[in-house]
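Minutes, project check-in
Item: structure for the 278-residue chain
Input as provided by the requester:
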Amino acid sequence: MKNVKTEGVAVIQEQTKKSTGFLQVLNKYSAPIFISLILLAGHLSFGILESYTTVILAIAASIITDLVLGRLFFGKWKNLASAYISGISVSILIRSMFYWPYILTAMISITSKYVLRYKGKHIWNPSNFGISWMLFTAPFSVAGLSIQWGNNIWPMLVIWVLGTVIVYRAKKFHVTFTYVISFIFFAFVRSYLTGDAFLAEVAPLTGPMYQLFIFFMITDPPTGVRSKKGQILVAFLIALVEFVLRMNQFIYAPFYALFLVGPLAKFIDIRKESITQG
């Protein structure tokens, strides 16, 4: 009887370990899985991808660059989930008639993680850095995604549900929520100042570019500040800077706003942490 009980406990423990291991894997790779589903939903509904070739090129460039630089800088093979997300983000968020911008943007994005660091931490969101850099320096070869979901609510609903699950599991829902509310407020202000319709000003939130931006870029844990209040403040400041840029006719205002606000906030946060510990 004792052996039976012992074997039963061992079986339960083994099943628990397997279940826990599966949940850990699922949690670890939930963001890559969900962004893949977002890409699939968007492309099947509205064809948001330039081609499957550009997706493969961007992902491959991200992964290879991360593998090489991870080994070169830290002497180890990196977890490639972040590189995969960066590659997909690049393939969705830029447009070009050529293949080389997808490869170069992905490589710049990943390289920024290793080169642009302060006290051992990278301060720019990788894909935001690469995309912003290319949009600003190569405007004749690269453009940003501008497709809207139109009147079809289902693809947008899929992305919002998946995105909400991701940021909730990452405990960053307050960041997305703050940015969305701030964007709506500043859309109202823009409407009042310019005389444009409020719905026209708030419409960008329904597009895939903004949805990837609010779920994957501004919520990036490694490049965010530590405190919850600080994260809320940074999200509001990004929306504020975007408002100013938009009022001055900057087409890719959200990318540039994060490019300017995010690293500065991260730099200040790291400095404060160093002073406190020192």
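Outcome recorded: The CA atoms of residues 83 and 212 lie 15 Å apart.
No further action items on this chain.
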